[in-house]
Amino acid sequence: MLFGQSLFQSVLDRLDAEEEDKSGKDEAAHRIRGLNVSFAATVFGGEPPASARPDDAYVDNLGNEIPSPEPMLEPEQKEPEPPVMPDYLARTSREEVAAELAISSQSTLQSLHEKRRAFAKANHPDGVAPSFREQATTRMMIANQLIDEAIRRLTR
């Protein structure tokens, strides 16, 4: 308690006294020197200032009117050409995929993993047109089988 009042009551009294002091003074006294306008634009006639239109803000810097874009002409509707199957997707036999992988007796576990990643990067079904995914899936299955067999031989 401060002078017979609670702390809360003394704060309220001080705020009331400050408010009475403010009502007698000019409101411009609290402004920052050098700042002549407020942050919020005052609109007298209901018309927003030009700076409030963000789509036109860049025009002020250019100084010239920007010509309106020409109307776009609709291109002729052509059917897209069907995708052409890459040559490597036609090679789906076990021997052809093995020749591409080039697995040898000197292959290490690390080199086999690198071959798997490189083959998947070039042949993954998600990387080809939907009509060729079956061939790509077949190639990936064969490559994975060949690499898995080579890894099993290494671990023996």
From TrEMBL:
It comes from Rhizobium jaguaris. Residues 62-86 are annotated as: Disordered. This is J domain-containing protein.
